[in-house]
Amino acid sequence: MYQSNPAIIIVLITMLASWLVQMRLRSKFEKYAQVGLRNGLSGRQIAELMLADHGITDVRIISTEGKLTDHYNPADKTVNLSEAVYNDRSAAAAAVAAHECGHAVQHATAYSALQFRSAMVPALSAVSKFMPILLFLGVIMLRTTPLPLTIGVAFFALTTLFSFVTLPVEFDASKRALAWMDKRNIVTPQEHVMAKDALWWAAMTYVVAALGSLATLFYYATMLLGRRR
């Protein structure tokens, strides 16, 4: 029997932590979405203002379906805001809109961590197509040959690296967003606290995801090393 019980426990703990953080994030955004901004600006207007203040004219702001689906796409230079954020005039909408524009500012200023993450995307896209089947076959065939699982673990290590590279990108975007909102008087001190809290919980989802990926990598690596004993 493989000595992987500690690894399984770690994976289960990170899965539970991920669920709790996601629930907390949704709760925070629902709460702060009820707080109207003093200035009455919508998420779209805040995004337009932040981009203009940074001299960015080649980025489009578009509305997307779903909740918490907001993201910046460096490939086509679009700030994608969920319908609620795009139209709402709340502390939560302000935080998200400014955060996503923070990524656009990173792109415009050639922020190194974002460049590194973007450079990883093609390789990661190719790897993700084969990784699940390699891990599946690797576990089944482990007593026969360790090769499929070895390759699968190597591929998974790349996805884990990507999740950790994402962390400074996300934290920096939030830092830029909060600094700009304060400088521009977009939020009051009370609204700043709410925006910062919302962005902190959003960042925690990436932290937990990175730790979960690391825990899963540890699980498969432990299984692979256990086979060789």
UniProtKB/TrEMBL annotation:
UniProt keyword Hydrolase present: no
Keywords attached to this entry: Membrane, Transmembrane, Transmembrane helix
Entry-linked InterPro entries: Zn_peptidase_2 (IPR007395)
TM segment ranges: 6-25, 121-141, 147-167, 198-221
Pfam families associated with the record: Zn_peptidase_2
Protein name, per record: Zinc metallopeptidase
